[in-house]
Write a structure and sequence with these properties.
heterodimer; A: 272 residues; alpha/beta; Rossmann fold; 6-stranded mixed β-sheet; 10 helices; B: mainly alpha; 2 domains; 4 helices; rod-shaped
Chain lengths: 272, 136
Amino acid sequence: MRVNMNIKAIRQHKALFSSESVVLLDRLTTLKAQNQQSPLNVIVFGKYNHGKSSFLNAWLREDIFKAEDVRCTVKVQSHHDIKNNVVWTDTPGLDADKHDDAQAKDAIKSADVVLLVHDIISGELDKKELDFIRHYSQHEGKGKLRILLTKIDQVEAELKTIQASIDQQLAAFNLPLFAISSTRYQKYLKQDSTLFLTNSGFKPLFPMLRTATKDKLKMRKTEIKTICGILINDLTNAHKKYTTKKQNIESTLTTEKQHFNRAKQHVLNLLH
Amino acid sequence: MPLPWILGTIVVGTAAYLLSDDDTEEREADERREASREASRQRRAHEAETKARQTATELQASKNIAQQFSQKYYGYIPQEITYAQNKQSLKRSVEEQSQSKPDSLNKLAKKVSDAQITLNTLEQLMASLQSLKGEE
């Protein structure tokens, strides 16, 4: 009788999974271990110097993450906002170097929500960002990705034009997009001016995060289903591969047996 | 008186001559027979030697075939084959060795069985993941 394996037992057979699936298997393990009390994991991701750390510091109302005009986040840093039960993770800039890219991509594996930060001053999304969005939003990041267009205070006149072309770039992906200014939000915090709050674009982020927190279990369940589907698909391919392999060995074995029996008979006939 | 003596001498002489001639023939015939026997012995010995050589050559050729077979399929040559005295014992040794499956066939059979174990594990993993998916 076949007994179903639990995730721990499944992991013991990770040699049968492809390298991409082993990563998903790790994620599946994490997801299965999480419950309603587990914090929401928000990963802030994007090219270096596009305002990731500045956004986080403004959002958390504390200078927790180092933010300067040069590349300064060189390793993954996290902060647990206990009050809202959200773990915020700042990642090194995408496209800085291979090591930073790998670290950032590794960090998003544990994400419930990924905020892809793009500095609007730099214009449209570039190929690397679009490639990431295309792949991530359709695979392991399904339903997790949101786009943050930062520094909108610095492109007053061209804002609408740039945002329109970015909207067009993202039209096929149906992703929530937030145009924000961390500077204005900081000003709001200092001056308590609702105008700065409104113009900072931070307001819509609150309901988005509330929904994400409320729906995290549902999202994780969906993710578990998606991952299981991908893993089953991977194993189906492996099954096909091993079936062919077995058939080939069986065919060789039959041929070898025939050769052996013929050779044996031939020798015995000669010795007659 | 001399005539009888003369006649007697002639008779005795003739007889002696005649008798001596018979002995020589018999000896010569004897020698011929002996030579023929010797030739026959030598021929038989030569034939036996040729046959023995031929048998040894044939046995060696059979051993070579048996050894090639053993080496190819079993990776070693049993002493019974190397030191077989005749074809019958050689054949018996080959039959005996070929009762067991050669290593190469055993290895292939093991590979088939390993692949089947992997396939069973994969099926179990797929069923487990399917069940995990259904739980959510």
